[in-house]
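Hey team,

Sharing the RQC P-site tRNA stabilizing factor run so nobody has to redo it. Sequence (80 residues) first:
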Amino acid sequence: MRLDKFLKNSRLIKRRTIAKEACDQGRVKVNDKVAKAGTEVEVGDIITIAFGEKITKIQVADLVEHVTKESSKEMYKVIE
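Structure output:
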């Protein structure tokens, strides 16, 4: 699954266009490498997102195409 789509589906970022912009600005890393919006993520990958001063680090737990608000939190596990 594309990184921008994962961020939107998991509701870590509200819209896919905003997820793409965050990737373009270098604020998103996958496995400690700066990632583009089209980077493919897999179960077990570590994603680091910089929201201003706050840094969120999560591990991909599941890849789901169509997700509800309740099940979106099951797509990842917060590390930091």
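The two ends are 23 Å apart (CA to CA).

Ping me if you want the raw files.
A.
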